Model the fold of this input.
Amino acid sequence: MRLLLDEMYTGLKDHLEVLGWEVETVRDAGFSGIMDKEIVEYAKKRDRILVTQDQKLAELAEILEVKHVFISNAMVAKMIDLGIRRRYHESSSS
Done:
């Protein structure tokens, strides 16, 4: 599978490539100050899964039936919480 990472996830490119994904970032694609719709259309034309934390971008992808993953702040907070609890064996009643 091929991914297109939105700007906030550019730093994850190497990590995802090590995990076996074919990754392109919006910067790699030459986008700077471009309209959200153009990013979504780019992902669709190149059959890439768009990874974003931008709700508007995710909504446009949904409308245009583009494969996407929306990473919400709540998802990030839960991952941080889980990582801390696993690493430091904290119970949920801290």
Summary: The beta strands are 2-5, 22-25, 49-52, 68-70. The chain has one domain: 2-88. Residues 2-88 form a domain with the Rossmann fold fold (CATH 3.40.50). Helices lie at 13-18, 36-45, 55-63, 73-88.
